[in-house]
Amino acid sequence: MSMLIAAFMFIGLLTVSTAHFLWSIGRTWPIREEKLLAQTVVGFRDIQHMPPRWASFAVSIATLAAGVIALSLADHTSGGLPLTLLGLPFAAVFLARGIIGYTPWWAEKTPEPNFRLNDIRVYSPLCLFLGAGFLALVIMRLI
Description:
This protein is mainly alpha-helical. It contains 6 helices and no strands. The chain has one domain.
């Protein structure tokens, strides 16, 4: 069961990582115009451009690493307690981002309509799923 959870998590994280990598090399996939892409995936008020490329690259590496950690957590025979405990900060980060996505504070910070729609339907639920997945993988390793 843990490998199934980790595999689904890895697919989502690899997708996010790939998109951020493409943005880090200057591509605007899946939207042709940079301003509209920034409004859709970043969402801050009056945003005109994507964040610096190095930031997208850093997110790409971080999400790929999170996917590898998820797969590692599914292997109950390796890593021991340190690996198990490493899953907790990942769970906390993803759960926090997922929850924050539904707060009025975040809606005020990210008012772009395309972002709001995607955040409520995709970004925040994905983060909640990933956070719950990390938590489940940690619990399954402990019992």
